[in-house]
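FORM 7B: Structural annotation worksheet

SECTION A. Query
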Amino acid sequence: MVDFNKISEFFKNSTIPQNMLERGQIVINNFVKPIRTLFEQKSVPKEPWSDEQIEFLLLTLSNMDTDKDNNAARVGEREARIASKLHLKTSAGFCHGVGRSGFLTAPQPKAPGGSIMYEISNYLARDILRNFGLPNVKKAIITPLCTGMSLSLTLGALRQRTDDAKEENKRTVLIPQIDHNALLKAINLMGLKTKIVKGRIQGDAVRIPIEDIESSLDDDCFAIISLTSFFPPREHDNLKEISRLAQDKGLIHIIINAYGVQSPEWMKLIRAAIDAGRVDAIIQSTDKNFLTPIGGALIASPNNESIDKISQAYAGRASATPVVNFLISMLSLGISGYQKLIEEQQQNRKILEEKLSEVAKKINERLLEVYNPVAVALSLETLKAEQLYALGGALYNLRVTGPRVYNPKEKSFGTCCENYTTPYIVMNAAIGSETKDIISAVERFEKAYKQITQK
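SECTION B. Predicted structure
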């Protein structure tokens, strides 16, 4: 194999002057140096890589897999055979995927390059969390599953297996009210029961008191879910007290941190919960936090055993594509790039609040007093029911995507409580949003509001 650090030596007796060879060697050394550093340190680079460096890494690793061996005699039922070379592009060349049947992080004999790629990605998953708020996580993996399906996998993996029939048959998951179908389906998919602790309205915010959670426990509960990031008016849970309760009662505790990595405030809550009591797993979306295409999640834990169990519970071999997407994001952003995104998100959140506050004064409305580092909610009490219905469509026609309009006369699902009487609209300033998007969205909201009220 060519040693790229010594290319100049292959041509030292050629007609090319030595000073030119040495100059070229400096350039190629700078190009491949980050790859060597990645292999040695297995951490997110401080500075972003170029697309060319990322492509070189992926091409090199994917060419280690056996489907690239032209002299191999492939007679298995699964040999990464593909119908089109376009498949190589969509999978970054990792057609064999990652893991082995029933063991997500196990080395795959037909995919040595894919196995290296996955191992590096998992190290980077842990490293990015450690750098941005969770120094007390010990292990992490990227799953080729959305957040909800990753919750199913985690519940199935961590559910206690014991000879004690009473413990073995526990099927109830205690969940502070989270009006999100994906999470409820994730629990139902595993054949488990949910026991929902109803949210309470406290001012504008919806919260679930720890006293209500504790009093809802029964002998059939084996796990508890808590969450950080959600839509107003629902605020984050009291993670520290829930982790203490989980430790005292022997409950599996899973934190849904769907889009919370971008928020230093939410990450502090998780760090404190880990230190205070029991946290078995923290699940976050790769697309919401790390700007990847949809389809992956990052599961982390303060103990190695939990991640090992989750890895070994995965049924079948896994697609490498969501893993590659995460790796690409980490290398293209680096620590400095991700820090910049967080700073921009925080600034955009301030701008969103300022702009919506200005509009609120014009239309005789107010911002709801709900703690949320990403989203802002604005009351819509001056609108009639039919106008609330029309607002969402008007915004869509103005090419504004993402806002949520709540009409208390239509449904309560989404508020995480009963009888939330204040109609509102929620807008987000999530990571990756640009300031122009925030300003434009608020301006178009004001335009939409005028359209539906001046008819």
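SECTION C. Observations
The domain at 338-453 is CATH 3.90.1150.10 (Aspartate Aminotransferase, domain 1). Residues 277 and 366 are 38 Å apart (CA to CA).

SECTION D. Sign-off
Analyst initials: ____
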